[in-house]
Design brief:
Number of strands: 16
Strand order of the largest sheet: 6-3-2-1-10-9-8-7
Radius of gyration: 23 Å
Distance between the termini: 54 Å
Largest sheet: 8 strands, parallel
Strand content: 5-15%
Structural class: alpha/beta
Length: 502
């Protein structure tokens, strides 16, 4: 085996929207299996198509070009029809809708030459305090998550883009974020089989093109290593136990669950020996170079065998044969239909909690919202109260906005003064993370004034459980969801059903 082929075990990112000369040289030198794109790589559709073409000119026509286009807040390309979050699809509960949304996502990506989507998540979000999955899950019931997630994946792959179910064996019952630390899911095997493992087992039966690993320890499966580095999990369970034949790709290696706990070179080699085909190697070129050099060294000294590389190359060939890299036409009529589909899905997902009372168009409305949302990890953007204001003012011309620092107590006096002058109060929660105690206290003050009031849960649905007041949930603040919310506030019905247990 030629050690120079070790780059085939890796997919990497590139720094920006244009492939610079140093980027070309780096890709050409190591001939990686593909490139993972992020929002930093996107300016326009035309620019992105050019970038994809340039990458393939260097890596070859079979290169995998991938990204995370899950829907909702984990959407890298906003310039094509935007899918609602998985949990919004869960609130609708229709497998047929899930399949149609997955297919529409594929049509948009396929038009750009992207042939691999690192979605959908099959994590069963049973932990309300989960800091990283939440609305990225289809819900808290394993059977429903499986039904909707695999329908979404079937639509995606049926329309020509390979899917990647994640995060195997399941990240839904963690109270820690693997971007920041190493979580553990300490459950008996029988319980794992009923909840976490069930959707992935069914995905293997369906023949999904790829599986992404979780940087999570499961003592019942391997007491020593997270799934990404675990041979008992990746080879013993997924390959030998379940007979999975598709690609196994790791979650990003720059996440602290791996990067802060395991030496880079050792972890890079270990995940391949554990059974992973592709390492998601993100970060500076020097880090990527260190990883590929570690793999080359393991090839030279025999730790990684010729057969092991041949297996991965064979799976890569099968993947690009099944999901070719050529960009496909996207007629304007089809794109308009897909936009309408996404808007309809968002509209059907709006969920009412408690006795919801709606404002009148003539009401003087006070909209309260944090000054900024706290985002990070897989999320690349903040919500802004101004975007919400723009949509709501179209329906409610007498609406005014008051933003506040989430952790500040001093705002309460001003809020109370403005609230007394309003006919109706809307309090929006826009963060993914837990609410500050001061925000909870502010909500109690507002809802205790005796004025008509409504909570707008624009991202984390569990905020409605924390506050306990009547609410409308959107599962995200992309434009289709905000449009749908404004329609419901103007008198439409909220037909979504909460897909998680409160």
């Amino acid at each position: 085996m030629d050690p120079a082929q070790a780059g085939k075990f890796m997919i990497v990112d590139v720094p920006g929207p244009v492939l610079q000369d140093e980027d070309r040289a780096h890709l050409a030198r190591y001939q990686f299996a593909g490139v993972c794109l992020f929002r930093k790589n996107v300016q326009t559709r035309e620019q992105l198509s050019r970038l994809v073409t340039d990458i393939r000119e260097v890596l070859g026509p079979e290169a995998l070009i991938c990204l995370d286009q899950e829907g909702g807040m984990v959407t890298r390309v906003l310039e094509i029809p935007q899918a609602p979050a998985p949990m919004a699809i869960g609130a609708v509960g229709s497998a047929e809708l899930a399949r149609e949304v997955g297919a529409a996502v594929a049509r948009g990506l396929g038009a750009l030459g992207i042939n691999w989507n690192l979605a959908p998540p099959l994590d069963v979000n049973t932990n309300p305090a989960n800091p990283i999955i939440g609305e990225r899950s289809f819900g808290s019931h394993p059977v429903k998550v499986t039904e909707l997630g695999l329908a979404w994946a079937a639509g995606l792959e049926g329309a020509g883009v390979m899917g990647s179910v994640k995060h195997f064996p399941g990240h839904g019952d963690t109270a820690q974020d693997s971007h920041l630390t190493l979580p553990t899911v300490d459950k008996p095997l029988m319980e794992l089989e009923k909840v976490e493992l069930y959707p992935f087992f069914k995905a293997v039966e369906q023949g999904i093109g790829s599986v992404m690993t979780a940087h999570v320890v499961f003592p019942a499966l391997d007491p020593d290593y997270p799934a990404t580095l675990s041979r008992p999990i990746l080879t013993g369970l997924l390959r030998q136990g379940w007979g999975y034949e598709g690609l196994i790709v790791t979650d990003a290696f720059d996440m602290k669950a791996i990067a802060a706990r395991f030496p880079l070179a050792e972890a890079t080699v270990q995940t391949v020996l554990a059974g992973a085909d592709l390492i998601c190697a993100l970060g500076p070129k020097e880090v990527q170079t260190a990883q590929v050099q570690a793999l080359r060294g393991a090839v030279v000294d025999g730790r990684i065998s010729s057969r092991r590389l041949e297996e991965t190359c064979s799976r890569l060939e099968a993947a690009t044969h099944n999901f070719p890299a050529t960009s496909r036409p996207y007629p304007a009529e089809q794109e308009a239909a897909d936009e309408a589909l996404m808007q309809s899905a968002a509209r059907q997902s709006i969920t009412a909690i408690g006795e919801v009372r709606l404002p009148r168009p003539s009401d003087q409305i006070l909209l309260l919202a944090p000054q900024s949302a706290r985002v990070g990890a897989v999320y690349e953007e903040e919500s802004t109260a101004e975007r919400l204001l723009r949509y709501l003012r179209a329906e409610f011309p007498r609406l005014s906005l008051l933003t506040y620092p989430p952790a500040a107590r001093s705002v309460q006096t001003r809020v109370i003064q403005e609230a007394h002058a309003a006919d109706f109060i809307l309090m929006a929660t826009t963060s993914r993370t837990e609410l500050h105690p001061e925000e909870v206290e502010l909500a109690r003050t507002i809802f205790g004034l005796g004025k008509p009031a409504l909570h707008l849960g624009l991202w984390n649905p569990y905020h409605a459980r924390t506050l306990g007041y009547p609410a409308l949930l959107t599962y995200g603040f992309r434009d289709p969801s905000l449009i749908a919310l404004s329609e419901v506030l103007a008198g439409g019905q909220a037909t979504g059903r909460l897909p998680v247990q409160f």
